[in-house]
Amino acid sequence: MRNQTKHFINGEWVESTGSDTIDVINPATEEVMGTISSGTEEDLDKAVKAARAVFPTFSKSSKEQRIEWLQKIAEGYKARKEELIEVMTDELGAPLSVSEEVHYPAGLGHFKQAARSLKDFSFIEDRGRHTLIKDSIGVSGLITPWNFPTNQAATKIASAIAAGSPVVLKPASKTPFAAMILAEIIDEAGLPAGAFNLVNGTGSVIGNGISSHPDIDFVSFTGSGGVGEKIMQNGAETIKKVALELGGKSPIVVLEDADVKEAAKTALSNIMTNTGQVCSAGTRVLIPQSMKEEFEKTIVAMLPDFPVGDPRKEGIATGPLVSEDQWETVQSYIEKGEKEATLLAGGTGKPEGLEKGYYARPTIFTDVSQDAVIAQEEIFGPVTTIFTYEDLDQAIEMANDTIYGLAGYIVGKDPDAIRHVATNIRAGRIKINDAKTDFNGPFGGYKQSGIGREWGDFGIEEYLEVKSVHGLPSS
Ligand code: NAD
């Protein structure tokens, strides 16, 4: 049991001013694995005060100093590798291999990338008739979701440190422990007291408190669209800058010349990795009409390659969903899908032998119409939908027929077709075949998938204000 009821405020682990706590449930066992504090507005105020107090010096720290902090954090992160992997498996339900190969490197990648990006970053630029100065934006409030405990926190924290912005982080209360390990790592890296603060608690108290706090200048939020909307409304009262990383319903466009097995593998890994709880997951598979029969046969036959089960057991690809609520939500979408489309595999209920734990059956729907609920809404579970298209223009139109625009995937060979689709999908990140992720590639959404970009140099820019100085004497 992890009973970690302290917050990290002004360089110290401190008791909450309140006594309420939140239980953290292991989704594979349905048992309480630990307890955190349900922080109060007073706790948040203390953290914001600490951040505000250090702002004048932290925002003027040198680039070299920030690079050193980021590198020390990356070293500290590597030293806690085993613990981070274990904790993410227990709090999120990610199989150990996924915690090790997806979650662990994602967090590390952001700290290393921010240090790399800073090396070439100019905080002052001569632009001919004016000089551009990039200043820290002020105090930032960071609100993160549960589905990528280290990735989401790390990208925000790394960019903020690179920009000299002190932060208050509120991690998701379903998965707080990886973020608390991050806090310990950051503490050991020697940042000045107040530069990094972590306050645990509910969205309604701490999250809401962050978005309406008059002394917070910028809110970087990752989570659902509904909460994003509230954050924008709250932030508007004090004219806060708000960055939102929201949901998606991303297309996978399978080209005529694609290898069917590769296409099926891409489609399945998109819904099976992290149990489909991935904002950028490709969950609408668009295949040429002529490929329908072969693709459907291939994807169903490939399902056993992604075994579902106990995340601590070797060889498991997909663990449980994060919570009972999430399980219920996914079930209700599968029920809707059964009425709207043809069920090719899976369905409602739990997989055989996995009655304890929030496990869902990997589910594939075909003959889905564009206006079906399961075609339009983010399900956030191991559920995919198959559509057919007649020609590439129709595929692009279908790919873009969504309120979202976070990501897009292309499987196939023809370079002209790939370029045509990649440049016409209205989304912030496109992945072609098995291309590797570049941590300097901006991440964020078009349309209702969000506002702003994270990762690398674009991520750092979010935490900066620009000032144009006209007539600056040269030094
Ligand atoms: P959520 O919106 O319920 O919660 C996200 C965070 O907001 C949590 O820390 C929560 O406590 C907090 N929160 C809740 N109510 C709040 C309020 N009124 N004011 C301020 N904060 C509040 O989302 P979730 O269920 O944790 O995560 C799933 C969603 O996140 C999905 O829609 C997914 O697509 C999205 N997501 C997006 C990205 C991205 O980068 N675009 C990445 C991961 C997840």
Summarize, please.
The chain is of the alpha/beta class.
Overall description:
The protein has 475 residues and is α/β, with parallel strands linked by helices. The chain folds into two domains: 2-246 and 449-470, Aldehyde Dehydrogenase, Chain A, domain 1, CATH 3.40.605.10; 250-438, 3-Layer(aba) Sandwich (Aldehyde Dehydrogenase, Chain A, domain 2). It contains 15 helices and 21 strands. The protein has helices at residues 41-58, 63-79, 81-92, 96-119, 149-163, 177-188, 203-212, 225-237, 260-272, 292-302, 324-340, 373-376, 392-399, 415-424, 456-462, and strands at residues 2-4, 6-9, 12-15, 21-26, 31-37, 124-126, 131-136, 140-143, 167-170, 196-198, 218-222, 241-245, 250-254, 282-288, 342-345, 363-366, 383-389, 407-411, 429-432, 450-451, 464-469. The strands form five sheets. A seven-stranded mixed sheet has the order 15-16-17-14-13-18-19, with helices on both faces. It has a six-stranded mixed sheet with strand order 10-9-8-11-12-20, with helices on both faces. Helix 6 (177-188) links the parallel strand 9 and strand 10 (196-198). The longest helix has 24 residues, at 96-119. The N and C termini lie far apart (58 Å). The mean pLDDT is 98. Nicotinamide-adenine-dinucleotide binds next to helix 7 and helix 8. GO terms for molecular function: oxidoreductase activity, acting on the aldehyde or oxo group of donors, NAD or NADP as acceptor. This is Aldehyde dehydrogenase family protein. Residues 13-469 form the Aldehyde dehydrogenase domain. The active site is at residue 245. Belongs to the aldehyde dehydrogenase family.
